[in-house]
Each structure stands twice: as C-alpha cells, then as structure tokens.
Amino acid sequence: MRVLVVDDDPAFRRALSTTLAALPGVEVSGTVASNAEAKAFLSEREVDVITLDVVLREESGLELIPWLQKNCPRAIVILVTSGSRHEARTAVDALFLGASSLILKPSGPDAPLTLRRALEAELAVAAKRLATPVPTGAGRFILAERREVIAVGASTGGPPVVLELLKALPTHFRTPLVLTQHMPAFHVPFFADLLARQSGRDVRVAADGEVVLDGIVYVAPGDRHMTLHRPRGTLSIALDDGPMEHGCRPAVDPMFRSVAATCGRAAVGVVLTGMGVDGAAGASAMRGHGAPIVVQDRVTSVVWGMPGAVVAAGAADTVVPGPEVARHIIRWTASEATR
Question: Which one, 83, 246, 287, 330, has least CB within 10 Å?
Fold first, then answer.
C-alpha cells in the first residue's frame, strides 16, 4: 500500500513516515509539506492512501480534497490532525467533502504506540476498500490520447480472447501491440501465425533489437522476456533470458515495467484471463505513469487470477467482458495514433 504523507510539521512528518514504514505491506512513497507539493507529487506518481493534516502552514488541507477527488479518485484520504476546536471543525468539513476517516495526533509517553495502532486500524479498512473490485466502467475519466503502444498480457484461456481482441480492432487502427502470452516456447510461432491468419493483422514473433512499427503485433518469443526501450530515440524491442518472474519466462511484469518507463502515459495496458498474479505489479507501474489499464472481468475469464490481481492492486481503470476490451482501447486512443 503506497502512502503519501502531507504535513507541515517536520518532526511529526518524520514520526508519521517512520511509523508507516514500519507497518507490514506499507510503502511511504513520499512526504510533502503543502498542498502545492502534494499536487506536484501526485501529478507524477500514484498512491493508494494520503494522510493529510487539515491545517497546514498558511493554508488548509481542506482545499486539497476537491483536487484529489478529481485527479486521484481511487486514493483514500485519512485526516491526521490535532484535537483543537478549529481543526476539529475543519476535519468534519473534510469528512463531508469525501475524506475517509480521521486520526487525532497523539501526545504523551504512549504517543508512538497510539499512533501506530490508529494507523494500523485505518489502513486495514483502506486495504479492504482497495481490494474491492472496480465496477465495470468505473475509474478515472480517461481522454483519448496518442498512444505509442498497447501492451497486452495473458495466460490460461488467453489465446481466443487475444484473437477476439485483434479481430475487433478496426483495420485503420495502427497503434502497435506488444503481447506476452504464457505459452511453451515451441508453440509461440504457431500461435503468432494463427493470430495473423485469422485476424488479418500483421502478427510476428518479436526479434531482439527490432524497431516497433505501426500496425504490427509483436508476440514475445518462447523462454525470453520482451521489453521496450528507446535507443537513440527509437522505440525498440529488447529480449533477454533473465530470471523467471512468477515462474514464467516470458512474463508480463517485465514488459509492463519497461512500457511504463519508456512510454509513460502514451500506452494502454491490458490484462486478460490467466492464472497467478503476473502483470499486477507491472500494471501498477504503468498506471502510476499515467497509462490506463483495462482488465477482463471474472465472468468471461477462464481463470481470474491475473486480472483479479490487478484489481486487488488498485491498478484497474475498468473491468469489462473480454469482447469489450477492444472498445476501450479504441476509445482511449486518439485518431492520430491510429494512423
């Protein structure tokens, strides 16, 4: 669980971040002292929880909440404030505005233990909320933008869904796709050939150093991770036989991580049916860089392991039946990218 601490008191900010960092499953993504610093941080990185002091130096944390609701709708806001009358009123206003809960700053010799227990209780509630599946069509409002690549991960039950996806994309859709499908190495060339013949698209097994071109579907070869990089400014494919991840090579996570680092928001992530959790961490990385993520729903998945893990990680922008995945890709991709 990624947490941002917003508090203008350096001593308490340090105490709060230290306490949070000591809790299992919690990562302190950053600490800031003002609304402006919080906005700047959250414009570049995504977090799950924000602890917010309602009274900051010369400003109110209250002013940040409407911005958070618009720009970070999935983030859970926990107010951390003193027990003064003024701050209590402001805290109540903040709760009406949409803050999740309230923690009073403790004092006295037992303050560290009291703070830890309060944070543990609130974060346990937050974890349950974050693990709740995103309803179909829910999530951020996503504009159609120029996308450099569509990154797709799939495993058990994936091949027919991938084929259905490719067939549903219009012929003028030219944004390249990179696909990691868990599959024995021997079968990959046949899989790519079948996709090409039945979808009518240019599908090929990716080669190391290959430049990513419009209109091509690149399939990760057997037993090698496929990643993207940009040597000399040109988006290209890199293959490697690094360690397995989640017992797989190729794995979805290395591909997604590289897409996040190389393309940022100029990408769309797709996680289809599959066993295990491969893709969840990578999807979180992509979404953290601004890329939207669509996952296949439980009903149409043969195994809802991989897409379910993305939802549990809070990284899904929408959860839809397999036949509707292509529609969201098209909707999120500007016409200039479908050249």
Answer: 83
* Max Cα distance, the chain (Å): 72
C-alpha of 121 from chain center: 25
Selected catalytic residue, list 7, 278, 297, 317: 278
Is 328 marked active-site? no
The Cα–Cα gap between 76 and 328 comes to: 26
Three-state DSSP at 154 gives strand
- Taking CA atoms, 276 is separated from 30, 88, 252, 285, in Å, by 30, 45, 11, 18
Whether 270 and 151 have beta carbons less than 8 Å apart is answered as yes
Cα separation, 224 vs 222, in Å, equals 6
pLDDT mean over 64-92: 77
Catalytic residue among 7, 17, 53, 155: 155
Predicted local distance difference test score (pLDDT) of residue 339: 43
Cα–Cα dist 14/1, whole Å: 18
7 noted as active-site residue? no
Q: For residue 324, how many C-alpha atoms fall within 13 Å in the half-sphere facing its CB? A: 13
More confident residue, 96 or 42: 42
Q: d(Cα 190, Cα 177) in Å, to the nearest integer?
A: 18
- Domains of the chain are 2-131 (3.40.50.2300), 149-337 (3.40.50.180)
